[in-house]
């Protein structure tokens, strides 16, 4: 289900961003590919889902970088 996937992505994001404020798109995509054992296209779709669910947000200062949204 979509809710379960969002929760999985939230948990993965916490691990990926542990100790980091910003993560590059490339690094985030690779981490998602590794964690979920998915291809590039699926990882990009997960990044979009994470943005829509407000798990992560794009940097206005550093295009191509994301940070965890603290909620």
Brief descriptors of the model:
71 residues, alpha+beta, three-stranded antiparallel beta sheet, 3 helices
Model description:
With 71 residues, the protein is α+β, with helices and mostly antiparallel strands. 56% of the residues lie in helices and 13% in strands. The protein has 3 helices and 3 strands. The protein has helices at 2-16, 25-36, 40-52; strands at 23-24, 56-58, 65-68. A 3-stranded antiparallel β-sheet has the order 1-3-2. The longest helix is centred in the first third of the chain and has 15 residues, at 2-16. The model has no long low-confidence stretch (mean pLDDT 95).
Order of helices and strands: HEHHEE
The total strand number stands at: 3
State the end-to-end CA separation: 22 Å
H/I helix tally: 3
Strand order of the largest sheet: 1-3-2
Which residue ranges are poorly predicted, with pLDDT under 50 across at least 5 consecutive positions? none
Average predicted local confidence, pLDDT: 95
List the topology elements.
Elements: H1 2-16, E1 23-24, H2 25-36, H3 40-52, E2 56-58, E3 65-68
Antiparallel strand pairs: 1-3, 2-3
Helix pairs in contact: 2-3
């Amino acid at each position: 289900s979509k809710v379960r996937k969002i929760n999985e992505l939230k948990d993965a994001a916490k691990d990926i961003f542990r100790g980091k404020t910003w993560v590059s798109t490339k690094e985030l995509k690779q981490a998602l590919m590794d964690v979920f054992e998915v291809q590039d296209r699926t990882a990009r779709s997960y990044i979009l889902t994470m943005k829509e669910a407000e798990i992560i947000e794009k940097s206005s200062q550093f295009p191509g970088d994301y940070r965890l949204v603290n909620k």
